UniProtKB/TrEMBL annotation:
UniProt-recorded name of the protein: CubicO group peptidase (Beta-lactamase class C family)
Pfam families in the cross-refs: Beta-lactamase (PF00144)
Database matches in PANTHER family: BETA-LACTAMASE-RELATED, BETA-LACTAMASE-RELATED DOMAIN-CONTAINING PROTEIN
Signal peptide: none
Coiled-coil features, chain-numbered ranges: none
Gene3D superfamilies recorded: DD-peptidase/beta-lactamase superfamily
Domain Beta-lactamase-related: 18-376
Species annotation: Kibdelosporangium banguiense
Domain of life: Bacteria
Cross-referenced InterPro entries: Beta-lactam-related (IPR001466), Beta-lactam/transpept-like (IPR012338), Beta-lactamase/esterase (IPR052907)
Length: 409
């Protein structure tokens, strides 16, 4: 498989692992991008966008990066917080009065970011295409009774996060989430990163290739096993009550790409992910574009919610005000071992099936990986983790024996 693009010699191992992903790990089409101290040191792409057509993955191919979208949505909230326009410790109802229903009057903004609001799903059956209707989804969530007492635990808000945090962004800024991101982040930084994709760019999107969960020997995460066994459980409500979004005919549709969902559905590539996190790796500013103040970056990277059993995904998770933190799940059963192994200073977000974007302030590192062939889990699988590991090794980092985090003495 020809690997296209460029890399700096110290990062040759990243290129080698990227090539191995295609040769040995089932990669179909992908891109990886790394910046250090603001400079691009890796920018690679390879493969095909669609095995059915054999169309080559190009320099500007886009793909749905799934929950990496949450990093973009969380960033929008932090921009407003950094400007003093949004208080993360205030009740959500201060900005979104209709939210104060069914026991949610005291839910705080940061509890939305921390996946503590008890709204991982909704009980009301969603009609087909519900996720493409922002007003419908925000109305349902405003009226919903939480699935647990808010603040008592956390459970990944896998598909509702964007409607919740994004509506707060809309109420505070007066602009829809996708417009805010385009005007405050993607535009100023020159990023090919879309929370709502224009029809003119649709031809560049590589369709997502979901894993075959029925294939013999495939390890199915407990999240999906529990959901299929009982749709009324929290995992079941999260992944089965989606109005058809989690079917290929849903997430690969033009309507999905055009809609703003905010938790998933952003179309970009590795360069876009690394580019979004580049200012954060440098304290909040790059090329005279300040996204947030350095004090806000510190808040973005601080663990604020962690538990040994996430109520929605049924594995340990750790969050920092809307971003994921390094989490070692390799001690779990083989079907639940996917996590994310970064340095303790890093924060970002993975995307279902393996995509990843993050910033590491200490290393002045930003990273992006995007692909079309999904793995079975919602964390980072061997393909993405091999690229992360090679990147940290190139920077002189070592991996802890216990916990797997990367560190530099």
């Amino acid at each position: 498989m020809p690997i296209l693009g460029t890399y700096s010699p110290p990062f040759a191992e990243v290129a080698a692992e990227f090539e191995r992903n295609f040769a040995e790990r089932g990669e179909v089409g992908a891109s990886v991008s790394v910046t250090v101290d603001g400079q691009t040191v890796v920018d690679l792409w390879a493969g095909v966008t669609d095995p059915a057509t054999g169309a080559e993955w190009s320099e500007d191919t886009l793909v749905d990066v799934w929950s990496c979208t949450k990093g973009a949505t969380a960033l929008c909230a932090h921009i407003l917080a950094s400007r003093g326009e949004l208080d993360l410790n205030a009740p959500v109802a201060k900005y979104w009065p209709e939210f104060a229903q069914n026991g949610k009057e005291a839910v705080l903004v940061h509890q939305l970011l921390d996946h503590q609001a008890g709204l991982s799903g909704v009980r009301e059956p969603l009609p087909e295409g519900a996720f493409f209707d922002w007003e419908k989804m925000t109305g349902l969530l405003a009226a919903a009774e939480p699935l647990w007492a808010p603040g008592t635990t956390h459970g990944y808000h896998g598909l509702t996060f964007g409607f919740l945090v994004g509506e707060v962004v809309r109420r505070v800024s007066g602009r829809p989430l996708a417009q805010f991101f385009a005007e405050e982040v993607a535009g100023p930084l020159g990023l090919d990163f879309w929370l709502s994709l224009p029809e003119s760019e649709e031809h560049r999107v590589a369709p997502t290739l979901p894993p075959d969960m029925t294939k013999p020997g495939v390890l199915v995460p407990s999240l999906y096993l529990t959901a299929m066994a009982d749709p009324a459980t929290i995992p079941g409500l999260m992944v089965l009550n989606t109005g058809g979004y989690l079917l290929p005919s849903g997430f690969n549709s033009r309507e999905a790409h055009a809609s703003t969902i905010g938790a998933v559905g952003a179309c970009t590539n590795a360069r876009g992910l690394a580019g979004m996190y580049r200012p954060l790796a440098l304290g909040g500013t790059f090329a005279d574009v300040q996204l947030v103040k350095p004090s806000q970056v510190a808040i973005m990277g601080q663990v604020t919610s962690a538990c040994s059993m996430d109520a929605a995904v049924l594995v340990p998770t750790r969050f920092a005000r809307g971003f994921g933190k390094t989490t070692d799940n390799r001690h779990l059963a083989p079907n639940d071992q996917e996590g994310i192994l970064l340095s303790e200073e890093a924060f970002g977000h993975s995307g279902m099936g393996g995509a990843l974007g993050f910033a590491d302030l200490k290393a002045k590192l930003s990273f992006g990986y995007a692909m079309n062939q999904q793995g079975t889990g919602i964390g980072v699988n061997e393909r993405g983790q091999s690229l992360v590991d090679a990147t940290y090794r190139a920077l002189g980092y070592h991996q802890m024996t216990e916990g797997g985090s990367w560190f530099k003495q």
